[in-house]
Amino acid sequence: MPVEVGDSLADGLVGNLEPGCVTPGVLRGHVDLVAVTDAEIRAALRALFTAHGLVAEGAGAAALAALLAGKIEVTGRVVAVLSGRNITAPAYAEALTRD
């Protein structure tokens, strides 16, 4: 599965999978994958902080970004896993203030 490696606020999701990595094969058929933009991730980070006082890294807020952007159909209860706090203070400040 070729993955283009690039710069992103969600650096934990930008690819760089080692050859022979089994993760894509394990996920295929078990989960739906959606893409989110850095702008959508910034919106999720702002929502987490302003509404709940929570800090997450970009990759850790990707699930919430997809929900807030309407990219996941919501029926019934939904769980979004938030993880990580591996974000520098300057990157986090930019995420909170940039549109």
Layout of helices and strands:
Layout: H1 23-27, H2 38-52, H3 62-68, H4 89-97
Helix pairs in contact: 2-3, 2-4
**Number of H- or I-type helical stretches:** 4
Q: How many domains would you count in the coordinates?
A: 1
**Cα separation of the termini:** 32 Å
CATH topology heading: Rossmann fold
CATH architecture: 3-Layer(aba) Sandwich
Overall mean pLDDT: 85
What's the total number of strands? 0
Note the beta-strand portion: under 5%
Percent helix range: 25-40%
Unreliable residue runs: none
Would you state the CATH class? Alpha Beta
Which structural class do the helices and strands define? mainly alpha
Commentary on this structure:
There is one protein chain. Helix content is 36%, strand content 0%. The mean pLDDT is 85. By secondary structure, the chain is mostly helical. The protein has 4 helices and no strands. The longest helix has 15 residues, at 38-52.
